[in-house]
């Protein structure tokens, strides 16, 4: 049984650094032998969360950073992504599947994270996102009706 790992990092507001930290986190999941399904779900969610923090939160500002906190064990992976932007109200993001928003690209990432993660909660005025994926989660659940 591997000991849990906990770390914190700050990255500049650019997507190249975001990709590097995303790959570090995915590598940790592979070290803990998470399933391909879990790795896919977390990779997708990390890309969305980190990119959103850089692009929408910090607006690529060179004087702002994105803080990333990770805790991984054999049972779950928990990541907190926090930007230094103005924040937003996640509940105000329109449903991208509703007919009036179906052709807009925004909001899909949030919808996907909510579907793939066991926990997806914003705090600090929308500047902080706590994500959690449990090992061998059955998410997303799909209705085949």
Describe this structure in words.
With 145 residues, the protein is α+β, with helices and mostly antiparallel strands. It has one domain (5-134): Histidine kinase-like ATPase, C-terminal domain (Heat Shock Protein 90), CATH 3.30.565. 33% of the residues lie in helices and 24% in strands. It has 3 helices and 5 strands; from the N terminus they run βααββαββ. It has helices at residues 15-31, 36-57, 108-116; strands at 5-12, 65-72, 76-82, 119-123, 128-134. A 5-stranded antiparallel sheet has the order 1-2-3-5-4, with helices on one face. A hairpin with a 3-residue loop joins strand 2 and strand 3 (76-82). Helix 1 (15-31) packs antiparallel against helix 2 (36-57) and helix 2 runs antiparallel to helix 3. The chain is globular and about 45 Å long. The model has no long low-confidence stretch (mean pLDDT 92).
In short:
The protein is an alpha+beta fold and 145 residues long. It has a single domain, classed as 2-Layer Sandwich (Heat Shock Protein 90).
Task: Average the pLDDT over all residues and give the rounded result.
Answer: 92
- Choose one word for the global shape: globular
Task: Give helix % range.
Answer: 25-40%
Number of domain modules: 1
Strand order of the largest sheet: 1-2-3-5-4
Question: How much strand content do the residues show?
Answer: 15-25%
């Amino acid at each position: 049984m591997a000991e849990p790992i906990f770390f914190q990092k700050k990255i500049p507001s650019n997507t190249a650094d975001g990709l590097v930290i995303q790959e570090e986190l995915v590598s940790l999941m592979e070290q803990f032998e998470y399933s391909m399904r879990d790795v896919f779900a977390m990779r997708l969610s990390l890309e969305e969360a980190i990119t959103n923090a850089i692009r929408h939160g910090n607006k690529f500002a060179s004087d702002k950073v994105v803080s990333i906190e990770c805790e991984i064990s054999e049972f779950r992976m928990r990541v907190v992504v926090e930007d230094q932007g103005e924040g937003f109200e996640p509940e105000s993001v329109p449903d991208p599947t509703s007919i009036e928003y179906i052709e807009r690209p925004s909001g899909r990432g949030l919808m996907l994270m909510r579907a793939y993660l066991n926990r997806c909660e914003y705090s600090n005025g929308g500047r902080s996102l706590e994500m959690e994926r449990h090992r061998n989660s059955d998410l997303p659940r799909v209705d085949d009706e």
